[in-house]
UniProtKB/TrEMBL annotation:
It is an enzyme of class 4 (lyase). SUPFAM superfamilies: Alanine racemase C-terminal domain-like, PLP-binding barrel. The active site is at C375 (proton donor). Residues 57-290 form the Orn/DAP/Arg decarboxylase 2 N-terminal domain. It catalyses: L-ornithine + H(+) = putrescine + CO2. This is ornithine decarboxylase. It comes from Rosa chinensis (China rose). CDD domains: PLPDE_III_ODC.
Length: 429
């Protein structure tokens, strides 16, 4: 961890926004602490901020290519549309899953060819389909008969992927199947209606649910996808040739490797060598690329003691980055750091008060509540969890805060989410 280049950090100009390092944030608490200390020293402010480690994003792309070399990733923009993250993914050769004209526009503006975009929102407004046709986004998903007429009218030349409901969504934290995906008995009528409308079905897509730890879900979904390929053949449609395995991947290495291995063997099980030769396999990972790259640094801005209970206000909350983050994950990702007395001058020499909800040095803990900054009582991010005694101007650092966090923030009560992001780029030479 001493490979981190302190000199280059200390020589930074006062307008600090880009830090070149040769270490990565990851789980290295010492490095996280150093970076935050440096930022606080150079830019004293009590505002919450993000640190985005672009080196981690490149590492993840390497991991993806190593484990799923035959699967082209289309990063799901909704997960986190931070411009530097998107630009890094462009540089790494990613394609993109967009769900709205404004997402499509932001990706085209980065110089990405419309051929590298999938419009993966199964139900779209007519005007949005028309927009996709105008800008040349020609790969679109659908899962209902109602969508066929709109597409026939506004984008008849596009290629369609029929989105099917994944048969097994158990083991995921964010199921999608109650809203998306054709049921098995709907597939044949949908294919026939598409054919009657003169539209071209290129293949099948599914999503096993967000943050999935049930790798067999990919197997059963691929089996269901194969059944759709067979149904199309039975209907004498032109052979399907695109397989879109959606998202749901987590970046924790053993989980990702297990999911990738299941995908690989299942594709080989259900599609013969000859079929695989003409098969294009794509995926729509969101969380995989975004989650670990962002670290959120918040400040304790208020404290109240009620008997044994400790209550704290931090300057980020439900309406900022934490609407879709599970409290258990928040607690497991949290580090508390002590600031210098006036909070503006970096952090203290031995600043770690807490890691993952546990006091360091064995200090006593208290049942604690963490509130966000707005005037809604539901703006509460932890409740009844054991935390050590914390004080105003301590920092609470949350790791792995890149997936469905700032992307979901609202401006309720005039707060929004952390506005500043410090970027770590990497010099591995
Ligand atoms: C949200 C979404 C994704 C990304 O899912 P992750 O679980 O974050 O990988 C992919 N495809 C579609 C259609 C989605 O709606």
């Amino acid at each position: 961890m001493e490979s981190w280049n302190v000199k280059s950090l200390e020589a930074l100009p006062s307008a600090l926004d880009q830090v070149v390092t040769n270490s990565r944030l990851g789980d290295d608490e010492y490095f996280i602490q150093k970076i935050i200390s440096m930022i606080k020293k150079l830019q004293p402010s009590e505002e919450a901020f993000y640190v985005l480690d672009l080196g981690l994003v490149s590492n993840l792309m390497d991991t993806w290519k190593r484990n799923l070399p035959m699967v082209q990733p289309f990063y799901a923009v909704k997960c986190n549309p931070h411009p530097n993250l998107l630009a890094t993914l462009v540089a790494q050769g990613s394609s993109f899953d967009c769900a709205s004209p404004s997402e499509i526009e932001s990706i085209l503006a980065l110089g990405v060819s419309p051929d590298h975009i999938i419009y993966a929102n199964p139900c779209k407004a007519s005007s949005h389909i028309k927009y996709a046709a105008e800008v040349g986004v020609n790969l679109i998903t659908y899962d209902s008969v109602g969508e066929i007429e709109k597409i026939r009218k506004w984008h008849p030349k596009c290629s369609l992927l029929i989105r099917i409901k994944a048969p097994d969504e158990s083991g995921c934290n964010w199921p999608l199947g109650s809203k998306f995906g054709a049921l098995p008995e709907e597939v044949s009528p949908l294919l026939q209606a598409t054919q009657t409308a003169g539209l071209r079905v290129a293949g099948v897509s599914f999503h096993v649910g967000g943050e999935s730890y049930n790798f067999q879900a990919y197997k059963t979904a691929l089996e269901a996808a194969k059944a759709v390929f067979q149904e199309a053949a039975k209907l004498s449609m032109p052979p399907l040739h695109v397989l879109d395995i959606g998202g749901g991947f987590v970046s924790e290495p053993s989980s990702f490797e297990a999911a990738a291995a299941t995908v690989k063997t299942s594709v080989e099980t259900y599609f013969s060598e000859e079929e695989r030769r003409s098969l294009t396999v794509i995926a729509e990972p969101g969380r995989f690329f975004a989650e670990t790259a962002f670290t959120l640094v918040t400040n304790i801005i208020g404290k109240r003691v009620r008997g044994e209970d400790r209550q704290y206000w931090i300057n980020e909350g439900f309406y900022g980055s934490m609407m879709l983050v599970n409290p258990k994950t928040l607690l497991e990702s949290c580090i508390a750091l002590k600031c210098m007395s006036n909070n503006s001058d970096g952090i203290e020499k031995n600043p770690v008060l807490m890691v993952c909800g546990k006091a360091t040095g064995g200090a006593r803990t208290y049942s604690s509540t963490l509130f966000g900054p707005t005037c809604d009582s539901a703006d509460k991010v932890l409740e009844g969890d054991q935390l050590p005694e914390l004080e105003v101007n301590n920092l609470l650092v949350f790791r792995n805060m890149g997936a469905y966090t700032s992307a979901c923030s609202s401006h309720f009560n005039g707060f929004g989410s952390a506005k500043i992001t410090y970027i770590l780029t990497h010099d591995d030479s």
